[in-house]
Automatic annotation (TrEMBL), chain A:
Coiled coil stretches, renumbered: none
Stated name of the protein: Tryptophan synthase beta chain
Taxonomic classification: Bacteria, Pseudomonadati, Pseudomonadota, Alphaproteobacteria, Acetobacterales
Single GO molecular function: tryptophan synthase activity
Pathway where this protein functions: Amino-acid biosynthesis; L-tryptophan biosynthesis; L-tryptophan from chorismate: step 5/5
Subunit record text: Tetramer of two alpha and two beta chains.
Superkingdom: Bacteria
Listed InterPro entries: Trp_synth_b_CS (IPR006653), Trp_synth_beta (IPR006654), Trp_synth_beta/beta-like (IPR023026), TrpB-like_PALP (IPR001926), TrpB-like_PALP_sf (IPR036052)
PROSITE patterns: TRP_SYNTHASE_BETA
Cofactor names: pyridoxal 5'-phosphate
Family statement drawn from the similarity comment of this UniProt entry: Belongs to the TrpB family.
Source species of the chain: Falsiroseomonas stagni DSM 19981
Keyword list, A-Z: Amino-acid biosynthesis, Aromatic amino acid biosynthesis, Lyase, Pyridoxal phosphate, Tryptophan biosynthesis
Assigned GO CC terms: cytoplasm
Automatic annotation (TrEMBL), chain B:
UniProt pathway: Amino-acid biosynthesis; L-tryptophan biosynthesis; L-tryptophan from chorismate: step 5/5
Recorded catalytic activity of this chain's protein: (1S,2R)-1-C-(indol-3-yl)glycerol 3-phosphate + L-serine = D-glyceraldehyde 3-phosphate + L-tryptophan + H2O
Upper classification of the organism: Bacteria, Pseudomonadati, Pseudomonadota, Alphaproteobacteria, Acetobacterales
Gene: trpA
HAMAP family hit by this protein: Trp_synth_alpha
Record-level GO cellular component terms: cytosol
Enzyme class: lyase
Keywords: Amino-acid biosynthesis, Aromatic amino acid biosynthesis, Lyase, Tryptophan biosynthesis
Family that this chain belongs to: Belongs to the TrpA family.
Oligomeric and partner information: Tetramer of two alpha and two beta chains.
Protein name: Tryptophan synthase alpha chain
Length: 412, 277
């Protein structure tokens, strides 16, 4: 008799790389054999103790994991001032901004570059938006002595100069992409084009939980180290699980990393915060789940910003890392089944959260988690004082100080 | 017999390969493209690929990306593309038309409705670049029900283990991608491809057309001789682009230059008789 499957939300994707109807492998034939090769290599690496040990070693001694769980006490107190009596959740940060290179991206990059080496690939390419994934990839390539080419939208090259220079220092070649709106989507197109032309020696290190299978599952698995640590740390700190998890969602890698290990904890609510740009009811936002509909782009079926003819429309966000018209397919599925609630935070709300966090906690967050924080600021005062909110502070704000200064009218 | 099968059968009788042309519908605008499309059979195109514009053509090089941007700016829609095919069919009922593009515009139109409307408009086949055999189950039944061939690309990376799976999912003809890469970036030595094509033919009875990187009449002739046809796309798009003004509008020679180039390619392909087997 077949053993009934446990009622788990952590079994995806299926054999076709689908989460419900989302995901899949929508790529040109030239890439298809390579995608299958990556999948086989990744599946093998899961059972390869030496591979896992090497990845863990790098996380511990190179990245600095585990990242701390921080009780944001001053912020909590500050938010309680506005709350009704007995209200105001305790706010915790999972501090992945303390990782080497300043964001969560390095977790999955190290796993992927180890995989690339194992596959015998000798050249690494990556796309980047805010530059965090590009910096992480350039870093891992420097460490492992591999040539690295990073595709970056020309608009993003302009607004993320510090990270562009960092990548150069690390020895990467940065290719500005001028097609489309010259942002993350266009960089990903160009990355895929490079890969098609160089399949024999090149590994494409994708920065988020999107793209063709196995990338959404693989990047999620590597990033799940965030949620796994946070779960144990929270049990130790509070003796119980948090009531709500909050994370910013562009492609959605930091959010999947935090959420995934908690998906079967029924009492833990989850909120993904998309970039609402100038407002969800304007045309200038990056809220694929809140305002898009399902379609196929970059190798997967997922929610996309698109017009009535199925042409992809441009996203907008003050945060280059959230400026993407799609979202990882697992998020699309979690959205449809209602397991995760997806909301928006505007550019202005993120800017305000950015400043508040700097002053209240002495932590300058990246603009991406500042979107998550904007939701915390709205939601925490509505929750009972004995409830716990855990937010993924997935990146630090050093790269954003020029953008923020410009918006605040400061000359630096 | 479908127009595609009939055309390749007729060319086999003639002892020559096919010239397959690709341009993007609505490039640089609807009426200029319509004039080109209507002129293609007389200029010598044996099979016409009509590019369906998409904002994010991941398998295409800069020339075709720009063509897509011009076409979308000119108001291209899937329905508009089908209207153009319909207008060709009032003049020509034998030249096969293959719609080539990406999945999302078709998905938005509705796969079933698109297949039905494409067949009604007079299209004969589909190439959906980002739908590999693994994902074809949502397209295949509708294509088959409407008599549309699903033409597939086979790449140098498609290994022996994978080949039967791809071939089994292909009808009409096989589009052999001569290079690993995107359209219009590099060329191959097409004359040397005969053994590769022969190997492919051990697995299939379908005609094989070679594409990617074919620019000159001589290359087209070599490819058509090595296989059953040569696909020329970027070279035609480049000629079209060179005739436009600085705003991307059609010039006085746009239609003439493109059709003139097609004639030159056709002459070379027609002169390249196949050695009797």
């Amino acid at each position: 008799m077949n053993k009934p499957l446990p009622n788990s939300l952590r079994q995806g994707p299926d054999g076709r790389g689908r989460f419900g109807e989302f995901g899949g492998r929508f790529v040109a034939e030239t890439l298809m054999p390579l995608i299958l090769e990556v999948e086989a290599a990744y599946e093998a690496s899961k059972k390869d103790a030496a591979f896992q040990a090497e990845w863990r070693r790098l996380l511990t001694h190179y990245v600095g994991r585990p990242s701390p769980l921080w009780y944001a006490e001053r912020l909590t107190t500050h938010l309680r001032k506005k709350a009704a009596p007995g209200k105001g959740a305790k706010v915790y940060f999972k501090r992945d901004e303390l990782n080497h290179t300043g964001a969560h991206k390095i977790n999955a990059v190290l796993g992927q570059i180890l995989l690339a080496k194992k596959m015998g690939k000798t050249r690494i390419i990556a796309e980047t938006g805010a530059g965090q994934h590009g910096v992480a990839t350039a870093t891992a390539c420097a460490l492992m002595d591999l040539p690295c080419v990073v595709y970056m939208g020309a608009t993003d090259v302009e607004r993320q100069q510090p990270n562009v220079f960092r990548m150069k220092l690390l020895g990467a070649q940065i290719v500005p992409v001028t097609s489309g709106a010259a942002t993350l989507k266009d960089a990903m197109n160009e990355g895929l084009r490079d890969w098609v032309a160089n399949v024999h020696d090149t590994y494409y290190c994708i920065g988020t939980v999107a793209g063709p299978h196995p990338y959404p599952a693989m990047v999620r698995d590597f990033q799940s180290v965030i949620g796994t640590e946070a779960r144990a740390q929270m049990l130790e700190a509070e003796g119980r699980l948090p009531d709500v998890l909050v994370a910013a969602v562009g492609g959605g890698s930091n959010a999947m990393g935090l959420f995934y290990p908690f998906l079967d904890d029924k009492d833990v609510a989850m909120v993904g915060v998309e970039a609402a740009g100038r407002g969800l009811d304007t045309h200038e936002h990056a809220a694929a789940l809140s305002r898009g509909r399902p379609g196929v782009l970059h190798g997967n079926r997922t929610y996309l910003l698109q017009d009535g003819d199925g042409q992809i429309t441009e996203a907008h966000s003050i945060s280059a890392g959230l400026d993407y018209p799609g979202v990882g397919p697992e998020h699309s599925w979690l959205h449809e089944i209602g397991r995760v609630q997806y909301v928006g935070a505007t550019d202005d709300e993120a800017l305000e959260a950015f400043q508040l966090c700097s002053r209240q906690e002495g932590i300058i967050p990246a603009l991406e988690p500042a979107h998550a924080l904007a939701h915390v600021i709205k939601a925490a005062p509505e929750m009972p004082a004995d409830s716990i909110m855990l937010m993924n502070l997935c990146g630090r704000g050093d790269k954003d100080i020029f953008t923020v200064a410009k918006h605040l009218g400061e000359n630096i | 017999m479908s127009r595609i099968a009939a055309k390749f059968a007729a060319l086999r009788q003639e002892g020559r390969g096919a010239l397959v042309t690709y341009l993007q519908a609505f490039d640089p605008d609807r009426e200029t493209y319509r004039a080109i499309l209507h002129g293609l059979p007389a200029a010598g195109a044996d099979v016409i690929e009509v590019g369906v514009p998409f904002t994010d053509p991941m398998a295409d090089g800069p020339s075709i990306q720009k063509a897509g941007q011009r076409a979308l700016k000119a108001g291209a829609t899937a329905a508009g593309v089908l209207d153009l095919v319909r207008s060709l069919r009032t003049l020509d009922d034998t030249t096969p038309v293959v719609l080539m593009g990406y999945y999302n515009p078709i998905l938005t139109y509705g796969v079933e409705a698109f297949c039905k409307d494409a067949a009604t408009a007079g299209a004969d086949g589909l190439i959906i670049v980002d739908v590999p055999p693994e994902e074809a189950d949502e397209v295949e039944p509708h294509a088959t029900a409407n008599g549309l061939d699903l033409i597939r690309l086979i790449a140098p990376t498609t290994d022996e283990a994978r080949l039967p799976k791809v071939l089994a999912a292909t009808t009409g003809f096989i589009y052999y991608v001569a290079i690993t890469g995107i359209t219009g970036t590099r060329s191959a030595d097409y004359a040397s491809m005969a053994p590769t094509i022969a190997n492919l033919k051990r697995h299939t009875d379908l005609p094989v057309a070679i594409g990617f990187g074919i620019r000159s009449p001589a290359q087209a002739a070599e490819a058509a001789q090595a296989a059953d046809g040569a696909v020329v796309g970027t070279a035609l798009v480049d000629t079209l682009a060179a005739s436009l003004d600085s705003e991307g509008r059609a010039g006085p020679d746009t239609v003439k230059n493109v059709l003139g180039q097609v004639s030159g390619l056709a002459q070379a392909v027609r002169a390249a008789r196949k050695v009797a087997a």
